[in-house]
Automatic annotation (TrEMBL):
Alphabetized Pfam families for the sequence: Glyco_hydro_47 (PF01532)
Catalytic activity: N(4)-(alpha-D-Man-(1->2)-alpha-D-Man-(1->2)-alpha-D-Man-(1->3)-[alpha-D-Man-(1->3)-[alpha-D-Man-(1->2)-alpha-D-Man-(1->6)]-alpha-D-Man-(1->6)]-beta-D-Man-(1->4)-beta-D-GlcNAc-(1->4)-beta-D-GlcNAc)-L-asparaginyl-[protein] (N-glucan mannose isomer 8A1,2,3B1,3) + 3 H2O = N(4)-(alpha-D-Man-(1->3)-[alpha-D-Man-(1->3)-[alpha-D-Man-(1->6)]-alpha-D-Man-(1->6)]-beta-D-Man-(1->4)-beta-D-GlcNAc-(1->4)-beta-D-GlcNAc)-L-asparaginyl-[protein] (N-glucan mannose isomer 5A1,2) + 3 beta-D-mannose; N(4)-(alpha-D-Man-(1->2)-alpha-D-Man-(1->2)-alpha-D-Man-(1->3)-[alpha-D-Man-(1->2)-alpha-D-Man-(1->3)-[alpha-D-Man-(1->2)-alpha-D-Man-(1->6)]-alpha-D-Man-(1->6)]-beta-D-Man-(1->4)-beta-D-GlcNAc-(1->4)-beta-D-GlcNAc)-L-asparaginyl-[protein] (N-glucan mannose isomer 9A1,2,3B1,2,3) + 4 H2O = N(4)-(alpha-D-Man-(1->3)-[alpha-D-Man-(1->3)-[alpha-D-Man-(1->6)]-alpha-D-Man-(1->6)]-beta-D-Man-(1->4)-beta-D-GlcNAc-(1->4)-beta-D-GlcNAc)-L-asparaginyl-[protein] (N-glucan mannose isomer 5A1,2) + 4 beta-D-mannose
GO BP, sorted A to Z: carbohydrate metabolic process; ERAD pathway
EC number: 3.2.1.-
Protein name, as recorded: alpha-1,2-Mannosidase
Disulfide bond positions: 361-390
InterPro entries: 6hp_glycosidase-like_sf, Glyco_hydro_47, Glycosyl_Hydrolase_47, Seven-hairpin_glycosidases
Pathway given in the UniProt record: Protein modification; protein glycosylation
Residue ranges crossing the lipid bilayer per the database entry: 45-65
Active-site residues per Swiss-Prot or TrEMBL entry: 164 (proton donor), 297, 404 (proton donor), 432
Family, per entry: Belongs to the glycosyl hydrolase 47 family.
Annotated organism of origin: Esox lucius
Signal peptide bounds: none
Membrane topology summary: Single-pass type II membrane protein
């Protein structure tokens, strides 16, 4: 966007081309040249010097020219406003596809213009409620609210996953209640919360993974009696908040008991936990494998955020978090050979694997949040290093989008830092990196984090946007010609990814603060609960 035309202009009125009153331009140029030659050498030198000085000042101080001179494109006059509107437009485009082809269903399949069903509870719609409110999309919010009020029923003979239904449905309803004050959302949250409670009726008090919300019966997966550690330790924020709002302590008691049990369990390695826990014995299984990726990731995130949620009065949570961070630094932290990027790998029975899931990109934001709340300064140092690595997972790919899993190069060379196996090159429109960018920008005010988020949004628009409406996950981030659409738009793209991009670009501090105050019970990857960052 260029500045408006100046009004202090000189107007020239030219008569008809056949009019004799028009003086010949060549004669005028000759006259000017004679006057120039009549000046002394000193006078001419002084005029040339002043003209050169004016030109240099113009280049340095006129925004659009100075940016080009320094090798950067000119910044628009209302950069943040333009970026916010681009996020709104992206949401509207995604919502258009959902409304036309998947209304009331769980997920949009934008390429085939159809829908996918998981629980049959309108996951995308409920997950996106708070995003619509924050983006100021009034009409879209009104039609979604009407569907929740009249169509959303939990009296269904259907199995739901405890973790997924908590973070997407219960969390979505609670956060929307906080943003709007609309009691209808709280009543719906109470309904689903009560129906999820049978999951905790196990011999060990470690919850089952699945619940039939119509029959009130819970069970483990068909193939095992184990639950993943991330799932059983990442429903706490939502259940604790439900107790606070309803004055019913049962919800908080069952999830706090899970944390007390895990706190005392043997089988950890310097605070790092195995990925699975048995619902019968209450003990860790598949010991010796330690990761901050899938099946364990949000355990570490929720330790810190529960501590903040509880007013920093629960020392066991803080202890487990601090010990775990030291365990990460001791066992999982490495740097690449080519560019010395810091990354988090995995440990498999004492053997290090330089593999990092995109899910691990929650960690820069979590570390920064902890440092902002008085934890050691070196947590912030590590957050900055890991944020750069997560950024490189995007920019080193031909599409500008991160793979689901990255392999890091430990060998000194001039080659690539990041490699991708064929089965790992998909992108699911995940939010972890943009959430961490949001935290890092808010704490450092370094505009580069906004620029990195903008680059990610542009890549989403270029490679995942479907013309008829919606965005699709893709199969190959290394192939910009044929990225391989997977025909699925995850609910978290609307519920989290676009929301955090909007908050990253927003200069409306009231909106940002209000969002941070009430978006805690939302999702294991995005929860920050009742705590003002400033």
């Amino acid at each position: 966007m260029y500045p408006p035309p100046r009004k202090d202009f000189i107007a020239l009125t030219l008569s008809d081309q056949h009019s004799r009153s028009y003086n010949n331009g060549k004669h005028r140029r000759q006259s000017c040249w004679r006057k120039w030659k009549q000046l002394s050498r000193l006078q001419r030198s002084l005029i040339l010097f002043l003209l050169a000085l004016l030109l240099i000042c113009g280049l340095l101080f006129y925004p659009s020219f100075s940016e080009q001179w320094r090798g950067r494109p000119p910044a628009p006059h209302s950069l943040s406003v333009d970026r916010l509107e681009t996020v709104r437009e992206a949401f509207r485009h995604a919502w258009k596809g959902y409304k036309e082809f998947a209304w009331g269903h769980d997920e949009l399949k934008p390429v085939s213009k159809s829908y996918g069903e998981w629980f049959g509870l309108g996951l995308t719609l409920v997950d996106a409620l708070d995003t619509m409110w924050i983006l100021g999309l009034t009409e879209e919010f009104k039609e979604a609210r009407k569907w929740v009020e009249t169509e959303l029923s939990f009296s269904k003979n259907v199995d739901v996953n405890l973790f997924e239904s908590t973070i997407r449905i219960l969390g979505g309803l609670l956060s929307t209640y906080h943003l709007t004050g609309d009691e209808m959302f709280l009543e719906k949250a109470k309904d689903i919360g009560l129906r999820l409670m049978p999951a905790f009726k196990t011999p060990s008090k470690i919850p089952f993974s699945d619940v039939n919300i119509g029959k009130g019966i819970a069970h483990p997966p068909r193939w095992t009696s184990d639950s993943t550690l991330a799932e059983v330790t990442s429903v706490q924020l939502e259940f604790r908040e439900l107790s606070r709002l309803t004055q019913d302590p049962r919800y908080q008691e069952v999830v706090n008991e899970v944390m007390r049990l895990v706190h005392k369990l043997p089988g950890k390695r310097d605070g790092l936990v195995p990925m699975f826990i048995n619902t019968n014995s209450g003990q860790f299984t598949h010991k010796g494998v330690f990761t901050l990726g899938a099946r364990a990731d949000s355990y570490y995130e929720y330790l810190l955020k529960q501590w903040i949620q509880g007013g920093k009065t629960e020392p066991d949570l803080l202890e487990d978090y601090l010990v775990a961070v030291e365990g990460v630094k001791k066992h999982l932290l490495r740097t690449t050979g080519p560019s010395k990027l810091t990354f988090i790998g995995e440990l498999n029975h004492n053997r290090f694997n330089p593999k990092m899931d995109h899910l691990v990109c929650f960690l820069p934001g979590t570390l920064a949040l902890g440092a902002h709340n008085g934890l050691p300064d070196d947590h912030m140092d590590l957050a900055l290093q890991l944020m750069e690595t997560c950024h490189q997972m995007y920019v080193q790919m031909e599409t500008g989008l991160s793979p689901e899993i990255a392999q890091f190069n430990l060998q000194p060379s001039d080659g690539r830092d990041v490699h991708v196996k064929p089965a790992d090159g998909h992108n699911l429109l995940r939010p972890e990196t943009v959430e961490s960018l949001f935290y890092l920008y808010r704490f450092t005010k370094d505009a580069k984090y906004r620029d990195w988020g903008w680059d990610i949004l542009q890549s989403f628009n270029k490679y995942t946007r479907v013309p008829s409406g919606g965005y699709t996950s893709i199969s190959n981030v290394r192939d910009p010609v044929n990225p391989g659409p997977r025909d699925k738009m995850e609910s978290f793209f609307l519920g989290e990814t676009l929301k955090y991009l909007y908050l990253l670009f927003s200069d409306d501090m009231e909106n940002v603060l209000y969002s941070l105050l009430y978006l805690g019970p939302k999702c294991s990857m995005t929860a920050i609960y009742f705590y003002v960052l400033w």
